[in-house]
Amino acid sequence: MPDNAFYSDRIGQSLSRTSEEMSAPAWRGMTVLIQQRLDDGSLARAFPEYNCPDDPGRNTITGTDRKHFLPPSKPTSPS
User: Fold this and answer.
1) Which residues lie closer than 8 Å to 69 by C-beta, 6 or more apart?
2) Distance of alpha carbon 79 from its chain centroid, rounded?
3) What is the mean pLDDT of residues 49-64?
4) How far is CA 26 from the centre of its chain?
5) In principle, which of 2, 8, 19, 20 could form an S-S bond with 14, CB 3.0–4.6 Å?
6) H/E element holding 64?
7) How far apart are CA 51 and CA 5, in angstroms?
8) Is 64 in contact with 44 (CB distance < 8 Å)?
9) 10 Å Cβ neighbour count for 64?
10) Helix, strand or coil for residue 63?
11) Structure-derived torsion over alpha carbons of residues 63, 66, 70, 74, reported in degrees to the nearest 10
12) CA atoms in the 13 A half-sphere facing the CB of 60
């Protein structure tokens, strides 16, 4: 068995996936985690927002640009 195999595969106790669908509570949990990352600036480098009145040259990142992170589209999560 390769050295990079998962521990559960090496000991022979891997569990098979029981569902390919995400439940509504799982979607809510993912939404909360993403919201937290948007709020704390973790995604600001990838989706920069330039909203500094003292730097009109758009050189200072002030947060996460939510409009570019989540462009308007049809919902894909369960209701």
Assistant:
1) 38, 43, 47
2) 19
3) 84
4) 13
5) 8
6) strand 63-64
7) 47
8) yes
9) 21
10) strand
11) 170
12) 8
pTM of the model: 0.59
Answer yes or no: is pLDDT of 75 > 80: no
First-to-last alpha carbon distance for the chain, in angstroms, is 43
Rounded-to-integer distance, Cα 26 and Cα 61, Å:
32
* Token code pair at residue 76: 């894909």
Element housing 49 (H / E): strand 48-49
| Mean pLDDT of the residues in the chain | 80
- Secondary structure class of 28 (helix, strand, coil): helix
